[in-house]
Amino acid sequence: MGVAGCGKSTLGQAVADGLGWPLVEGDDFHPPRNIEKMKSGVALTDADRREWLQALAQELASRPHAVMTCSALRRVYRDQLREASSGLRFVFLDLTEAQARERVARRPAHLFPPTLVASQFATLERPDGEDGVLRVDATLSTGELLGQVLRWMPPVPSSKATP
Ligand SMILES: Nc1ncnc2c1ncn2[C@@H]1O[C@H](COP(=O)(O)OP(=O)(O)OP(=O)(O)O)[C@@H](O)[C@H]1O
Ligand SMILES: O=C(O)[C@H](O)[C@@H](O)[C@H](O)[C@H](O)CO
């Protein structure tokens, strides 16, 4: 979880590979109108995110193990996902607004324009103090972040494991 550009897809892929679990890209579940809205520089609202979060919750409920990327900016969004998946844990990729804007600006072809980064921080309710959350410094290397996540995860079966 975290704002646009914090590194969810990059770390999510590394964690999925490390655990031998599938990666579910949350952005792939946005209805087309949400994508169009973000591309045109308009921030999503609670109403826009409702259907998307329902789809993500369903996806989590249908999988015994998976790594999912999802901004999950507000507490109610995280709680909706927690209800769908009792063992759900969140890795919060924490970085400053300036750092996020710089990263988002570096990838002009992406659906998310740098002008919307401020709205991500305005919406973000940090998960500090919530159970099952690991806060990490999103400016560390992916390898370092992966190590932190894997050390924090409880022992879990891997789909790569031989019986
Ligand atoms: N640990 C890192 N250190 C430096 N740069 C990183 C790191 N992780 C990701 N990046 C870079 O930051 C940019 C955003 O990364 P990524 O797409 O993984 O973020 P994201 O949170 O999935 O973004 P979005 O939700 O907007 O798709 C990319 O250019 C990526 O290469
Ligand atoms: O909740 C939101 O506002 C969205 O999920 C955004 O965070 C983007 O989809 C994502 O970060 C892609 O850039």
Number of strands: 4
Under CATH, the topology is which? Rossmann fold
Strand content: 5-15%
Tell me what the CATH architecture is. Answer: 3-Layer(aba) Sandwich
The order of strands across the largest sheet is 1-2
- Could you state the oligomeric state of the chains shown? single chain
Order of helices and strands: HEHHEHEHHEH
CATH level 1 name: Alpha Beta
**What is the average per-residue confidence, as pLDDT, rounded to a whole number?**
94
- Helix percentage range: 40-55%
Main sheet makeup? 2 strands, parallel
Find the CATH superfamily.
Answer: P-loop containing nucleotide triphosphate hydrolases
Q: Tell me the domain tally.
A: 1
> Given the helix and strand composition, which structural class is it?
mainly alpha
Describe the protein.
This protein has a single domain, classed as Rossmann fold. The strands form 2 sheets. A two-stranded parallel ribbon has the order 1-2. A two-stranded parallel sheet has the order 3-4. It is mostly helical and 163 residues long. Helix 1 (8-19) crosses helix 7 (142-152) and helix 3 packs parallel to helix 4. The longest helix has 16 residues, at 46-61. It is 45% helix and 10% strand.
